[in-house]
Write the structure tokens for this entry.
Amino acid sequence: MVDWKKIGKRSIFLPLWLIIALTIISAVLLVLVFIKGWEETILGYTSYTISFYSLCVLTVFCIKVLPYKVKSAKKKVYENKYGNRFLTDILFRAHFSLYRSLCINLLYIGVNIACALIYKTVWFAIFALYYVILAVMRFLLLKYIRKNKIASNMLGEWKRARICACILVLINLLLSGAILMMMYQNRGFEYYGILIYIMAMYSFYITTVAVMNIVKYRKYNSPVLSSAGNVSLAAALVSMLSLETGMLSAFGGNTPILTKRILIASTGAGIVVVLITLSCYMITKSTLEIRKIKTEKI
């Protein structure tokens, strides 16, 4: 006798490698069908069927199987000495996040310098310098955190937060000048080939991480960590600006110059206003907190 229940389970609960293969195949088939205009052909109907089946299998996997696999993987991480520390030690995780951001920052500096030399474009050099300053700020914050426990010396932390905020105000004023030059010289970033897609993924990734870090660092009540979050946000937003100019250069060949200038001006002005406002807020708050702490000590 045929065990239909067993057959049904085997047809729905597939191995992960097979689910991935089906998803890729269905995606390729759908793209091919829509590009070639084969929607009403046998291949078109076949691709719809495979895509529907892949979607069902993937949905079942995400609902029924994935939670158990995640739980099992998390258990193995907890059993590992370093993994356990990463998951349970909040300060260690904050340190790791800062080191990761610094490494990414340094990598991006290298990419900008390489692009400046290869493509002979001054904008890559300007923004490489911008990221060098941000990297130095990150390094100084990390150096302070290594020597001092987080939130143990609030006076020292507020002083460093104020210094970082002042530097951010200065470099973002310089950034506004660079944006004006970019607009009126009708020049900007030019990413060639697949590099534009790599930079797009990078920009969206660091922007997402920066926003998450700002929210996460608020829980620690540490001005130094908050400053690190602001630096990450500055790096992410400027990366989005460079991505926008690169996209306009790569795909906006028929876009009028005036429209390009309006887009760059709007994005650039928004970024500068957000960062300078955030920095001025940090300067004001740091100054008030420093005065408050000094008054309490008297």
Remarks:
- The mean pLDDT is 80.
- The chain is about 85% helix and 0% strand.
- Residues 218 and 226 are 7 Å apart (CA to CA).
- The two ends are 89 Å apart (CA to CA).
